[in-house]
Write a structure and sequence with these properties.
This protein is an alpha/beta fold. The protein has two domains: 49 residues, Orthogonal Bundle (Helicase, Ruva Protein, domain 3); 93 residues, Dna Topoisomerase Vi A Subunit, Chain: A, domain 2. 43% of the residues lie in helices and 13% in strands. The protein contains seven helices and six strands. A four-stranded parallel beta sheet has the order 4-3-5-6. A two-stranded antiparallel sheet has the order 1-2. Strand 3, helix 4 and strand 4 form a beta-alpha-beta unit. Helix 1 packs across helix 2. The longest helix has 17 residues. The protein starts with a helix and ends in a 5-residue tail after the last helix.
Length: 197
């Protein structure tokens, strides 16, 4: 419609999550009409990031180095590992600011239909870390989906067999939330995961 290069730019922007045809068109036209220097910087950063960012050898999150800043930080508790599905989940927990242990990033969840089993998630690498004897608690922070729950149960069984204490993050009513606005599924989980005061 706009010409081969512009159409390709619009189509390329659609790979971003939540970006449809209209949003991609708006972004492409903005970059070309109003912010060509921003477009050049964006292009350079994308190329450099794709070339230089890899996975942490210990936890598998995104990093520019062999070990990420968390795994190389000696003040973090190495005897506590929090298992998450994605780097975005790791960043969310880090932003909360209270967790001081280390992580293991699965890069997904068990999904036999999609051909994703324990091997694809690196669960064997996690089990090796647990076998070292240096870990005494595994915190499962997979998403509250059918696949996330199945993944958590699978990992919990493996960890318990090695004598590692396993816990699951709590879920339920958000801080400051009013019960009348919380959905039934969330309320049900909050009631089931209640704790004694």
């Amino acid at each position: 419609m706009y010409g081969n290069l512009i159409d390709q730019l619009i189509d390329s922007l659609r790979v971003l999550p939540g970006v449809g045809a209209k949003s991609a068109q708006r972004m492409a036209l903005h970059l070309l009409e109003r912010d060509r220097s921003g477009a050049s910087r964006l292009a350079e950063m994308i190329v450099e990031s794709v070339d230089k960012v890899g996975r942490c050898k210990e936890c598998r999150t995104l990093t520019e180095h062999d070990l990420c800043a968390i795994c190389s930080n000696s003040s973090r508790l190495s005897e506590q590992i929090c298992v998450v599905e994605s780097p975005a989940d790791l960043y969310a927990i880090e932003q909360a600011g209270s967790y001081r242990g280390k992580y293991f990033v699965l890069l997904g969840h068990l999904s036999p239909i999609d051909g994703i089993g324990p091997e694809q998630l690196g669960i064997d690498l996690l089990i090796e870390r647990l076998k070292s004897g240096a870990v005494n608690e595994l915190i499962l922070a997979t998403n509250l989906t059918v696949e996330g729950e199945a993944t958590a149960h699978f990992i919990a069984d493996k960890a318990k067999a090695l004598g590692v204490a396993v816990s699951r993050i709590a879920y339920g009513v958000p801080m400051g939330g009013e019960l009348e606005y919380v959905d039934g599924g969330t309320l049900n989980m909050a009631l089931q995961s209640r704790k004694t005061l």
